[in-house]
Amino acid sequence: MLGPSLRDREFRLISGIVYDRCRLNLHKGKKALVQSRLSKRLRSLGIENFREYLDYVQENDAEFSIMLDCLTTNYTGFYREPQHFEFLTEVVFPQLDLAEQERIRFWSAGCSSGEEAYSVAIEMKKGLSDIEKKDTLILATDISTRMLDVARTGVYEKDRLANCPPDVLRSFFAHFGPEKGVLYRVRPEVAGLVRFRHLNLVGPWPMKRPFDVIFCRNVMIYFDKATRRELVHRFWEALKPGGILIVGHCESLASIEHAFEFLSPTIYMKRTDARS
Length: 276
Fold this sequence. Notes:
The protein has 10 helices and 10 strands. The protein is an alpha/beta fold and 276 residues long. It folds into 2 domains: 8-71, Orthogonal Bundle (Chemotaxis Receptor Methyltransferase Cher, domain 1), CATH 1.10.155.10; 83-153 and 187-269, Vaccinia Virus protein VP39 (Rossmann fold, 3-Layer(aba) Sandwich). A 7-stranded mixed sheet has the order 6-2-1-7-8-10-9. The chain has a 3-stranded antiparallel sheet with strand order 3-5-4. The longest helix is centred in the N-terminal third of the chain and has 17 residues, at 83-99. The radius of gyration is 20 Å and the shape is globular.
């Protein structure tokens, strides 16, 4: 069944609203995608055309979050891009242990449904000595309240854990439900390391103290170059000297100006002699 027609003017209005609020870059080539994904939402609401839907979005803040969910891809999984977790265990954690620091802070920026943050928490439990004695926290933020609600449950279908080794499943998850469609819940000792919070990356950041590591993977692809440059600068400011920024596999910083030291593709360091 054909959905409602999205006129150019309506597409520009949607693009403008999204850009103004969160800098999501919906260029002209995205018009067909916008029409396809939002048409389903219009049908579920019983709204006949995009003009009426625009009025509804502007009068309903919760709908804006739902619209963003429709327009972005929230695909993720445990241990996605595994080389980043190998870097944590082989490079970052040994340095943190050697430093014997009491306070450890990681940030999963654009955490979606939580798998990235929980993967980091599991690796912390495995790789950091005396973690129970340290002030350790992973801040996990996202603009989508729906994704944050999923993340806070810590419950996942088995196919989302396809990259988890058997020993990780046994040690850090509890399974329940029927044999077919079995679900897995993150154990409390892992969930206790993570705090999920709502945050628009292009808005104010309330965090005051610096991070050891920031993950921002497969998020900046949605922004234009100016916004990416601004975010990378803010990430630099938010890291302690020697801190690490990890981005997605298609998000090289090569095309933008920045002060980070390149370590390997997608992994960057704020130099230890850096000054804000």
